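User: Second chain of the day. Same drill as before.
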Amino acid sequence: MRHFDHLNPTETERLFSVHPEEFDRDADAEVLAVALGATLYMPATRTTLARDLVKQGGSGVVSSVVCLEDAIADVDLPAAEKNVVNQLGELGRAVIGGGPAAQFPLTFVRVRNPDQIVDVVDGLGVHARVLSGFVLPKFTEETGVEFLEALADVRSRTGLALHAMPVIESPEAVHVETRTDMLLGVQRLLAKHRDVVLAVRLGATDLSAAFGIRRDRDLTIYDVRVVAEVISDVVNVLGRADGSGYVVTGPVWEYFVNHDRMSKPLLRESPFDENDERKLRHRLIRRDLDGLIREAVLDKANGLTGKTVIHPTHVAAVHALSVVTHEEYADACDILGEQMTSGGVRASAYRNKMNEARPHRSWAERTVRRAAAFGVAAPEVGFVDLLAASACT
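Assistant: Same format as last time:
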């Protein structure tokens, strides 16, 4: 697998000074967590699930979640469970046969209860190898134990390296009087199961629901202060760069169609004018993707990596923003280079900032890991170029 593999080789050569690296489904968790990118959620009731996964994998989607939880009405749950097993089994049979099915994304199932982990794996039998793991909802120290025990059971019985992605979205995480104890409890539990934890996800919809809030398309989640405070605390406790933390992924962007706007678009005109891509800017605004882009930029600034999305048109924007700029890479390599191993400070290669070896080192290490997954843009290539080149736009 490789990000941007759906682009033709000529475009890839033009866009990247360092190409994204290949990785496989059995890569180290540290590699896979950064490479998740835009994780596309799909309801488990979709009857064309196997075909859709292959289609999206061929157009740039690298990770996906099949949802058995909030996306499914209670009355539809038995049919959804059966459909997941049937569709992923069909995918498994196609993979055995070879051909384009091998392009399907890393695939996770968001379960509603621990028993579903066992039921899905046992139902798939030999085809369970199409799974990369499970998303564990409403995760706390108390509820998480049974999920992780069920995952440990199927890992032991099958030998599959299935990963866990717990979701922070419970009321205990929202309410200020319980949040710290809840997050510290999750930290303790995850530390005992570090070998299976791929990333920590944020359930912004449930976090907002605790206050009867739904953010508007013209706002980012960071404008909803009570939820932004939760995100800040999750990163503080679970996203530390001292070796104890995990990749924390960005919350879902849930809009994808046109609407009457109350606010100005969040995309500046000049970058699109300079690249003669005014029509692209118009399409992004018409699809409400200017809000997604602004939120993804703020995700990155707040220590989050990747993002949950619910529509294929979202993927290209998140991945374009994940590419390391030539300037970022030059700074990271400078900071990690031999000349700064003993500390100190020096002007950046771009002569526009100071690079400090010790305080910037963790940032530089994360930047190099992101560069391995998403590549480094050529010196004159920016976000608009990367987005315009993607077939997903």
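The domain at 9-323 is CATH 3.20.20.60 (TIM Barrel).

User: Great, on to the next one.
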